[in-house]
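Next comes this protein:
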Amino acid sequence: MDASGRKRNLGEVYIPIPAIIRKNFPDFFPHRDKIFNLHVPSNEILSSRICQDKNKAIMTYPNKALSDWLLRKVLKLNEGELLTYNKLKILGIDSVRITKIDKTNYKIDFSRIGSFNEFIEFCN
């Protein structure tokens, strides 16, 4: 797969930011390409930034840091193994929740099944 004209590494992942969140909370995240700290439940801090057109995603530096934490350490997936919604249902989660601590620090955690839909209803 291609990533801006270069070969994509299997460990490159991002967290999509739904349009409704970008619309309703436009100043929640720093501006695109501004580095911020993403605190994960394992007490690690991942250097992160908003990326893609229309600020649609969160990625980490190095890019593989997110997949190492989320896919390998937490979800225990093998390199190249696909994460499916069925696997998330087995774990009882359907999304991540990001909490703003201050202008440069954010906390990420998992949300139980149904919480994303509840949040979307709240936004509407």
Q: What stands out?
A: Helices lie at 19-24, 64-74, 85-91, 115-123. The radius of gyration is 15 Å. The first helix runs from residue 19 to 24.
